[in-house]
User: Fold Cytochrome o ubiquinol oxidase subunit 3 from Ancylobacter polymorphus.
Amino acid sequence: MSLSERLHPGINLAGTDPESHEAAEEVLFGFWIFLMSDLVLFAVLFATYAAMSVQGIAEGPRPAEVFDLTAAFLETLLLLFSSFAFGFAMLEMKYRENRRGVLGWLLVTGLLGAGFVGMELHDYYVMVTAHGATPQTSGFLSAYYLLTGTHALHVSSGLVWMAVMAVQVVVFGLSPAVKLRLMRLALFWHMLDVVWIGIFTFVYLYGVVS
Assistant:
């Protein structure tokens, strides 16, 4: 096995689709650079939240007073299972080139992702109506809504992208171009999962414990 077959920036297609594998090298490496730049944005938002959650409480509620840890845990499970579902979609694409299987797992991923966004919006509603915790209440809440809202916006964008890819799978099949787009979407989706783990750990868990 050559070095390019072993070191690949996405799912390795060398054994099943060498043409797509070769085309993916530069494309996916470039997409990794984009993802790193996106992670810089989240790093800035995390740093802002870390400062505001300590210095920006003012007269508003503290994290433990407004966070629902059970709901956050369920949202985490939804996003984790959505990543597993997307992984099965990619396996269907790699080993079976099964259009129906890919579409089925994309549907499962999309439903789980939509459930995550719906639960997060419900959290916002409860925080505002039950606790009066609006973004204007304190610097801490402004940073919280900005961080989690940016993530929710990314997830929503991923759901739109997923719907577009489902249409392309139906119209064009699993052509090399469609495979490359699915691979990039998979990287983007898994990145959002990693970011949310950070949010759940440092925002929700640490906020409630402290």
